[in-house]
Amino acid sequence: MSRAGSSTSSSDRRSAGLPRRGLLLLAAGALPLAGCGFRPLYGAGGGSAGSVAGSSDRVRAILASTQVGLIPERTGQLMRRSLTEKLGAAGATAPANELRVALQLSAEPEGFRRDGTASRVRYNATASWQLVTLTPPPATLAQGVERTFDSFNVPDNQFFAADFSRDATMVRLIDLLADDIVLRMSVRLGEANTG
User: Fold this and answer.
1) What cellular component GO annotations does this protein have (predicted)?
2) How confident is the model at residue 186 (pLDDT cuts 50, 70, 90)?
């Protein structure tokens, strides 16, 4: 029998205990979070109806019963689709709330070639949003303004590549903005429920 096939080195024994040690460090790191009031935003609710943990169920229910109002232009279509997917309202039969979004985009050149044409373009997006009830009279549940930006390089004499880069940047920008809106709306709804 060869020595390599039958022996166990001390490094093999140490590597077997590493996952356990990492798990213990993770648990020790999570203990202070429990004392500071940290709770996952989308975590499963539990406890009494007035508890903080129970508020996430209420927030999820509000988000799922929210329809997204029409937003003009192609970027508005992308924003509406992204928000509808993130809210989970695609299958809601009777929406109780409406999310109204006003989208503003601006572009600014960042880099220039020797001939003066732009080599890099930065898009800035601002979305003013308001969550209102559909019951008469409409009541505002939450509102805010979110901003984000993204950039892309403009390749030399490759118009298809430049258009593709611009379109991909626009999709990324809209998705980032939709994430920010849903996150901020969830936080505000959670604060309103606990406060």
Assistant:
1) outer membrane
2) very high
